[in-house]
């Protein structure tokens, strides 16, 4: 029987239950939230930068003046309803927010959620305030559908079911099609379907689940998600004990080999290319559902049984390690399959009496019953960072309880794509509250993402979020009743609540900031246990961590979901057109938090603007480097740093985490095996990996038919603005030998306690021609290797290899010995090679060449701190001869709208001012490069490529043609908000 809120609004005694009293926290009594905001009109024009085609245009749309151009563009193009150019078209944020919020408020009042009409009005104002101030956002289907003439679908995540019958398989195809058409994605487990090693009742051999995947894949490729030009989002899961598991593991691996062969034969095999449709299984993420039994067999090196689907008997045994190795080899080759850890998932299941959890949504964060759905919402964590750089836990909890109330109300009026999904969702009322901007929050607080402090803060915030959600769920149960399936699963649900509380008790806080959050989380979990015992719960599930791709941009988040910061430099669009390069606003805040003065902050930010990383930034302590580690770039996070962060947060989530562990191209199969094994041991519910450049079928920056083979090619293609004519040139290098008598320099050095000598010899014109390195005892292996290395470099120099090339290749290499040196110009070194080539650069390269490589002497760094310039005074050119960089520091002010001191600045600097850059509450450092580094850089991903010279391995957006960036387990375009498959 499906429960409704109306029927539950009366207690067992027949007395009407009093609704919620909504406290006014964010909005102001007597003032509508819209009246506290300055609004402005903007023109939204969106182009495909690859083709030059205008793909969208709507002029005069109304948004708050503090919303970025990017946010207003994405909301206008993605969420405004009505045909463009007609009176029915929405023209501003007010109409969009009213359409959604008023629908929620009306439904809440009709279903008995509010004690009085006044409480309903307060709820409306509070929800409106949070949305327009970008404190949170509902998932995309809410903005697409709520308050329109379309079905009121509010869920982004669906789990389907398929049985071992042709009727069920064909129904699977149909249900997926309807879900894709509506702009959402779905996942399911195919393990009930008989394997190709089993017999049919007629005596013939079964086709097996992999064969039926072909039809579903073709359907998904045909029905573009929501009518858009991107692939549908789907997840296919197979249990590890299914007899066809090896065939399943190899499906996409084989297809990737096919893609390479066809690409090399000249076919267009890019994502969206005209020939890619000949390749199968490309429209789904694949995951293997592994058990504790299997993982223990892997550890022990024992046999593992594959079981027939009809009888459950073992029909074949395999070596567990060999199968695990094959899974890892496939993931190394094509990023599929990921792993889902079945026993862990079901140990945290609140409804085991109803059925097991067998599958997930496409991004692996929603895990629940078959034929169910989940509506999501995510909070912007950075909005809750106070001026003293501590997290405002009470304010966060108040936002969570309001949002979780709204999410539950939506189930009362929501429509669903199938009757079974609607029935299960109304009976179990699964919700998925989560957050975005974790990476930015931790950086602003001076906490490294891959640090104990960073993980403790993330864990306590996640615990507080879920604890508050379940506390409000228990309060709602007292008013509108527990979910219909609660009575059957009451003991199991309460057991999982106790598991969450126990996990919270095990968190070890390290600072006052996380201790304050943890204290409130502990109080919330105590209330969960107490209220749950008395009232039950309104919701079977409460929280997940979703990718937050499009809605992350709607909230102007720097980072999506649980992700670290993508890069330290960003590409920012300006009101009225144009764009500028900015250094993340969280960086100066973090530096200030760590005790740096304004002068050093300015110098460090200027260095980041030029180099895109903090290595060797002037005045920055090496122990603080970890705070600025990012997903991409010079100091990219280690894979286990991602895994450990997920493990810190997982015990406090009803569902799981959408995240891909990124690995460098050089990663080995053994490393992937270790990540999968450690993820299981650390209690994750799911893990997916991606090794750079493992996928052929996605275009890099050139957008052509062949993926670039290396980062240099991709960078060159991205920067090209004129047609190149390539002539065939035969080049024969000539060796320029050193004179018999030449000037030489001997340098003794110490790196991390290791002593050595370097002798360098120069040509008559002063150019370096040879080096000799003395390390280790004569005759030792190390001494021999250094001799061979010295000869190789010396011959290269004499054949014309520029010293700059060697310096760029060998600096920043990291290996032991490393650390302090005895050289006043190079106080810290990451390795012997790093030191040697920095010293050679200082000795033999002119200032301009070294400056381009970011290498300065101690005197030059000191001069920069004193005068703002590295150059000697006699070498400083006129303003017209230099590429000027404007570094503008605006101090925090007591009130809104303070723009800081701008007196005395030139007209060219003032012209860079924009309205959105004036209204700041915190230090903002804007780097405006007046001579653009690359005319074709349109996104942060492309900007990072320009600065670092390394390609970002992600696809181009099919809407606007710019490079996307990773978000959870998919990709999102920061130009238009399109995603690569996740809704």
UniProtKB/TrEMBL annotation:
CDD domains xref list: RNR_II_dimer
Keywords: Cobalamin, Cobalt, Disulfide bond, DNA synthesis, Nucleotide-binding, Oxidoreductase
Family membership: Belongs to the ribonucleoside diphosphate reductase class-2 family.
Domain TSCPD: from-to ranges: 739-843
Role this protein plays: Catalyzes the reduction of ribonucleotides to deoxyribonucleotides. May function to provide a pool of deoxyribonucleotide precursors for DNA repair during oxygen limitation and/or for immediate growth after restoration of oxygen.
Species of provenance: Nocardioides immobilis
Region feature Disordered, mapped onto this chain: 894-920
Protein's recorded name: Vitamin B12-dependent ribonucleotide reductase
GO molecular function, one term: cobalt ion binding
